[in-house]
Specification:
By secondary structure, the protein is an alpha/beta fold. 38% of the residues lie in helices and 23% in strands. The protein binds adenosine-5'-triphosphate and magnesium ion (MG).
């Protein structure tokens, strides 16, 4: 057992998200050998917790296959050079917008379940309900009667604290105004609330902050996409042509302001009757999300069927994906979360490669 052989073994392991080997990624930082003890230092593209267990398993399995008596310790840390999210959100690693051109396609539902699925996999997650006209997250997270704790900072600025449920920190305009009041807010007042929500919430350290955007491609969406250093956006659609037209506008908006589109999600893809589980009904048409994704050469992140349990979860303040009996319907949300993180990791890996080649 020697360092060179172990390094070459470990270099051949694939990063499951990035499709490259640890060797290609420069992830095998060093290997120490002392008798039958091996200590491996890896540097991986974050988020760390997402990938650490898997790599720990793969590395140990491969070393044991070659050296059954080895005592192995794998130490994983984040590779440097991840893009910074800047001044406004220094303690947040990835900012992801959930958007759509059209209203009512299930953005808020997807955002709520995505946040919950990420938190369940061990990420620290915030959810910012940026829909100041019709905030949904207080209801979807069972916080409709909660207020937001706020105080004055030593500099005299008002700062607010998110409320927390299911391991997700949630901030919403719904916490600072009466129900039904949002619709009548106009102009400067609205802008003021929005700025407060975006800039004056104390989130603490987060792996992900998910923005639930209001529908459309108007002023608020533009302001947000320009002012916030988004890691990327996911675009939610339903399969029918009338929704797809709006999705195209949405993707074009993100392209224009240089925000990476992480992919398209198709919601309400089909209906499976509970009493006829072998049947699938394509109520809104078939394949629209996939089609629009390939049209714009962005990833298709998956589909979620229309199911009463999703709607019930949303109305009763419980993100459905957390239900231990959520089964294959829950898997569709978990798979989405997996693919979103994969795209975030790919984007970071590309950005790192670009930085490294500039340095050279
Ligand atoms: N896959 C689904 N199955 C069943 N019901 C769903 C599904 N997705 C969303 N819904 C329901 O559809 C309605 C609209 O969803 P949601 O509020 O998430 O859409 P939205 O795009 O955020 O709307 P808005 O444009 O108003 O912000 C909600 O009642 C929600 O519970
Ligand atoms: Mg919504």
């Amino acid at each position: 057992m020697n360092q060179e052989h172990l390094t070459s073994l470990l270099s051949s392991i694939q990063d499951p998200d990035l499709g490259s080997t640890l060797g290609q990624l420069g992830a095998v930082h060093s290997v120490e050998v002392n008798g039958n003890k091996v200590r491996v230092f890896l540097e991986v593209v974050p988020p760390l917790h997402w990938i650490a267990k898997r790599l720990d398993h793969d590395c140990k399995a491969l070393i044991h296959a070659n050296y059954p008596n080895a005592e192995i310790e794998i130490l994983v840390r984040e590779a440097e050079g991840a893009p910074s999210t800047g001044r406004v959100f220094p303690s947040i690693k990835h900012l992801i917008a959930v958007s759509s051109g059209k209203g009512g396609v299930g953005k808020s539902t997807v955002a709520a379940n995505l946040a919950a699925a990420l938190a369940q996999r061990g990420a620290s997650v915030g959810l910012l309900d940026a829909d100041i006209y019709g905030p949904s997250q207080p209801t979807m997270y069972g916080m409709a009667d909660q207020q937001m704790r706020a105080e004055k900072s030593p500099e005299g600025k008002v700062i607010g604290y998110p409320n927390e449920a299911y391991g997700v920190k949630v901030a919403s305009i719904g916490f600072v105004m009466q129900r039904d009041q949002a619709a009548i807010l106009r102009g400067p007042m609205l802008a003021g609330y929005f700025t407060m929500l975006v800039e004056q919430i104390v989130w603490g350290e987060l792996d992900f902050l998910i923005f639930d955007l209001p529908p459309g491609t108007g002023d608020i969406q533009l302001t947000l996409t320009q002012r916030i250093p988004l890691t990327g956006a996911v675009v939610v659609t339903t399969p029918q042509e009338i929704a797809l037209a709006d999705v195209r506008r949405s993707i074009q908006m993100f392209n224009k302001v240089n925000v990476k589109v992480l992919g398209v999600i198709e919601n309400m893809s089909h209906f499976i009757p509970p009493d006829l589980p072998d049947r699938k009904y394509y109520i809104f048409g078939q394949g629209g999300g996939q089609q629009v994704a390939s049209e714009y050469k962005v990833p298709f992140l998956g589909e979620v069927p229309i199911d009463v349990r999703v709607r019930e979860g949303a109305d009763s303040g419980f993100p459905f994906v957390l239900d231990p009996e959520s089964g294959s319907l829950g898997d569709s949300f978990r798979d989405l979360a997996q693919r979103v993180v994969q795209q975030v990791r790919i984007a970071q890996s590309d950005a790192r490669t670009a930085t490294i080649s500039i340095e050279i």
